Amino acid sequence: MVLETALWIPVLLLLIVGTIQFGKITYLYYSLKKAVYTAARYISVQQGINFCDPNDPTVQAAIQLAVTGTLDGSGNPLISNLTADMLQVTTECADPFNPGGALISCNLSGCGGPAGAQRPDYIVVSIPAGYPVQPRIPFITLDPISFRPSAAVPFGGTS
């Protein structure tokens, strides 16, 4: 009986550790998804955003909100190794030639003109390069997982 127990304990420990790691990875993905959604939601309700300028203060404040939880960027990152340059903010517009409602990138050719850029229908915040996660399970080496969460929120503000 002792021999059988000694043979099964490593298997049970591996299952327990694997379950804990799966829970941690799931929670991390949820946290990343919530961070990008928070930034997209913040931008979607703001007024007077210049989508032609990638350094618009409102967009930068939203990115800092996603990373640190504050608009001014003070404080530590909420998620370790998440930096502001990992996040990307883009706009999407409804395709006028497709009545099915397909979304395309907004036309920014009017930037700098009197009318400005096209008003977006959706704000999309994503981590296009991915957020690398290394699962840690004893005696098993796994390849890193790259999370690429994104959130699209309808734009209700003015540009």
Task: Present the secondary structure layout.
Layout: H1 2-44, H2 57-68, E1 88-94, E2 103-105, E3 122-126, E4 131-133, E5 145-147, E6 150-154
Antiparallel strand pairs: 1-2, 1-3, 3-6, 4-5
Helix pairs in contact: 1-2
Structure description:
The longest helix has 43 residues, at 2-44. This protein has helices spanning 2-44, 57-68, and strands at 88-94, 103-105, 122-126, 131-133, 145-147, 150-154. The strands form two sheets. The protein has a four-stranded antiparallel sheet with strand order 2-1-3-6. It has a two-stranded antiparallel ribbon with strand order 4-5. With 159 residues, it is of the alpha+beta class. It starts with a helix and ends in a 5-residue tail after the last strand. It has one domain (2-154). Helix 1 (2-44) runs antiparallel to helix 2.
